[in-house]
């Protein structure tokens, strides 16, 4: 078995669309997403090593100092899965 890190992406456009939803639609969508996530997690529980977490603001550290930057990485998790035959 090999360990893999899953990286979850979320674009600025997706966040804008989310914020543009009315409250009722957002709550309904959030509920459906949480239910689907829980179902996926239960079905794949034996492979999940670490559920990971959401990520915060991104920083770039360089010789010029520390600066805020943007990327689409929103969260991560670790899974342990069989390696396919190559």
**Annotation, overall tally of beta strands:** 5
Average pLDDT taken over every residue? 90
Shape assignment: flat
Radius of gyration: 17 Å
β-strand percent reads 35-45%
Distance between the termini: 14 Å
What is the count of structural domains? 1
Number of helices: 2
Largest sheet: 3 strands, antiparallel
Strand line-up in the sheet with most strands? 1-5-2
Helix content: 25-40%
H/E element order:
EHHEEEE
Given helix and strand content, the structural type is alpha+beta
Question: What do you see in this structure?
Answer:
With 86 residues, the protein is an alpha+beta fold. The chain has one domain. It is built from two helices and five strands, in the order βααββββ. The protein has a three-stranded antiparallel beta sheet, with no helix packed on it. A two-stranded antiparallel ribbon has the order 3-4. A hairpin with a 2-residue loop joins β3 and β4. The protein is flat, with a radius of gyration of 17 Å. The mean pLDDT is 90.
Overview in brief:
This protein is of the alpha+beta class and 86 residues long.
Produce the secondary structure layout.
Blueprint lengths: L1 E8 L2 H9 L2 H21 L4 E7 L3 E5 L2 E5 L3 E9 L5
